[in-house]
Amino acid sequence: MKHYSEEMELQIRNQPAFSTARATLQPNEQMRLESGAMIAMSHDMVVEGKMEGGFLKSLKRSALGGESFFQTTATAGPNGGFVDVAMGLPGDSVILQSTAAAPWILSQSSWIASSMGLTLDTKWGGMKSLFGGEGAFLVHVSGDGILLAGAYGAIEVVTLAAGEKIVIDSGHMVAVQASVTMSLHKAATGWMNSITSGEGLVFHFEGPGEVYTQTRNPNWFSRFASASHSHGTR
């Protein structure tokens, strides 16, 4: 799978369980990637950590959106070059094309890399999402370019027609087109039923547009890893 944005090329490899992606850059071209996402790169690639958008925006992106405080900017040498990247959790990746007229919204920690024409901004979903975990704060992607989003597990895409609806657990959402109407609700009737049923909050989506989901929930992995660590240190 190959996608281009102006001159940058993204190609996903090793799908679906342990996907990686190679970004091929033209001479002196730049790209942004999540801090720690780089696997390998050309010998003359220049890498810098920056507070994209300034201190306050970086703090909001880190504290609320689940992304790193610093974003990495990679600049190719005079002959061009490549950067190999991957998400921290095992799973698939997807390349999304974003335009000013058709932006995307990502869940926390789904963003891996993007072309320089895109801007990331963490936004609060409102009072309904105060206790939403993965759904509380979402990353809004705007501008023209391509981005690489990662998932825990396999990726499935739901294409909604105008007026068509679907309910998806907030921890299983990866990305959604901004054309899709979305709202966050309790999975069951009443907070006690939501807690005892084991389901937290869910997104209600209404088309038109696409919704990308992941088959595993990162929240469950965090709980499992925490529990395993606690048992191992007794």
Can you put this structure into words, describing what you see?
The structure is a single chain. With 234 residues, the chain is mainly beta. It has one domain: Double-stranded beta-helix (4-Layer Sandwich), CATH 3.60.160.10. It is 13% helix and 46% strand. It is built from three helices and 20 strands. The protein has helices spanning 55-63, 191-196, 218-232, and strands spanning 2-5, 8-13, 20-25, 30-34, 38-41, 46-50, 71-75, 81-85, 93-98, 104-106, 111-115, 118-124, 137-143, 145-150, 155-160, 165-169, 173-177, 181-186, 201-206, 209-214. The strands form four sheets. Strands 6-7-4-11-14-9 form a six-stranded antiparallel β-sheet, with no helix packed on it. A six-stranded antiparallel β-sheet has the order 12-13-10-17-20-15. The protein is globular and about 60 Å long.
Brief description of this entry?
Helices cover 13% and strands 46% of the residues. With 234 residues, it is mainly beta. The strands form 4 sheets. It has a 6-stranded antiparallel beta sheet with strand order 6-7-4-11-14-9, with no helix packed on it. A 6-stranded antiparallel beta sheet has the order 12-13-10-17-20-15.
Strand-helix topology:
Layout: E1 2-5, E2 8-13, E3 20-25, E4 30-34, E5 38-41, E6 46-50, H1 55-63, E7 71-75, E8 81-85, E9 93-98, E10 104-106, E11 111-115, E12 118-124, E13 137-143, E14 145-150, E15 155-160, E16 165-169, E17 173-177, E18 181-186, H2 191-196, E19 201-206, E20 209-214, H3 218-232
Antiparallel strand pairs: 1-2, 2-3, 3-8, 4-7, 4-11, 5-8, 6-7, 9-14, 10-13, 10-17, 11-14, 12-13, 15-20, 16-19, 17-20, 18-19
